[in-house]
Specification:
The chain is built from 16 helices and 2 strands. With about 350 residues, the chain is mainly α.
Length: about 350
Amino acid sequence: MLSIIAHHYVVNSGIADSFVYDQNITSQQLFLEIWGMWGKTGINAFILISGYFLCKMQLTLRRYVKLLIQIFFYGVAIMLFFTAFDYQQLTLKILFNKTFCLFRYVNRDFVASFMAFYAFVPVYNIIIKNTSSQNLLYLVLGLLFYSSICSTFFLAPTMFEPLWYATLYLVAAHIRLYPNQWTENWKISSIVLTASVLSAILSCLLMIHMAVKTGETLFSSFRWHMVADSNRFLAFMIGLSSFITAKNIKIGHSKIINGLASGCFGVLLIHASSDTMRQWLWQDVCKVPTMIDADMPILIAHAAAIPIIIFLICSFIDHFYKRFIEPLIMNIIFHEQKNELTGDYKNQTVQ
């Protein structure tokens, strides 16, 4: 999640509008180019983690509705917050779109695409259950060729986010159900991770160098090509290898880590909820655009600290929501009561 917030530090703040690709390019810009590269790799790791656990779980209507409620609550609550402080106008159109038009933005917004993908988890599990290891591997390789290889190396417009997330789901399921020496060795995955990260950085710097040398904007537009979208080859490799590495490193059970991890979706919903939030957070509060002229040590400290602070604050908000607000809503809709020890919900008789 920190890689996603760091990505937003660059792409959502407006600081990238100051980037130039000529002899006036600065070391600050080069740092930010590399700092903001990894958002899509974080998305891939998130989906892989979800698939790794969900392939052996049952997606219930309650679980799906609970996520929808979380999305709608944060969207409307944050919108009302900005309206209360005269930061944006509240219109019926805005309220309607925020409340009822989530799936209008499928393939344009991560949350909409994720929920479209998530709805078919039971179907994916049926396919996995009734497919042999070899046939599942062939299916995964075919989908990877179509979605990743064709897009990355042949520039084919094959990206459809729900299908790509389904592909990652099947990849994670194959790793979970059919482990082998490659998927259970953190040393191998860490080598692949390091090589993939270095390759992405070198690719970015090479494109920037060519843009500065030739003056052609084509090169600068390709600087993030290998990680520009989550289906790009190096974005996939980095997400996959980081997931496998983290999976195989034995750190033991930690309530703090598990708690922070469980709040990642909420962190995303809060800090990237709308264009108004992006302007308020990155431009008005964090003053990110002004950092393009800051001294390098100050820029590095700022770019490193802000994502951590945002993550912690949003995690606290999400914990408060799940602790106090979510149980009330779930009780109203499903007549359920939260078990404070397990965090699960159970039906209760309404008097």
